[in-house]
Automatic annotation (TrEMBL):
The keyword Transmembrane helix does not apply. This is TetR family transcriptional regulator. The lineage of its organism: Bacteria, Bacillati, Actinomycetota, Actinomycetes, Streptosporangiales. Gene3D superfamilies: Homeodomain-like, Tetracycline Repressor, domain 2. Residues 19-38 bind DNA. Residues 1-56 form the HTH tetR-type domain. It comes from Planobispora takensis. One of its GO terms (molecular function) is DNA-binding transcription factor activity. Keywords: DNA-binding.
Amino acid sequence: MILTAARERFAADGYEKATIRAIAADAEIDPSMVMRYFGSKDKLFAAAAEVDLRLPDLTALPRETVGAALAAHFLDRWEEDEGMMILLRTGVTNEVVAERMRGIFAAQLGPPAAALCGDPAQAPARAGLAASQVLGMALCRYVLRLPPVVALSREEIVHWLGPTLQRYLTE
């Protein structure tokens, strides 16, 4: 109940404007209960923004389809997961949240990048470049709402983004 209220409040107001009092009011509890269970706004946010990218096993896919599959997967994730949107909106203005995002993408996208590129030393750069593409697309489509990007169909985005992700991960 508290985490649901926190996710909704962080998504609506962003990290900076969301307050423990407002979250407690949304959850219909006393603010002291939020503090009792989570200890601080930062810890509550960390719990509310726990995100599993739920990446498919990219190494099990035909190698030539990895980029398109990853592009399609991230489109689905941005459109269905409020936690992803909380991180995106808040990460651009809050260093604690930005660090959280860096950790999530490095931990979850790094291993498949290492397996696909064949050179573990290149994996962090490749994962970072892939993350820059999906995060940039999401920021432009879902937060900034750039009209040309919003107007693109899912298939068009996969068509444009897929080859770039493919190159970053496999070439």
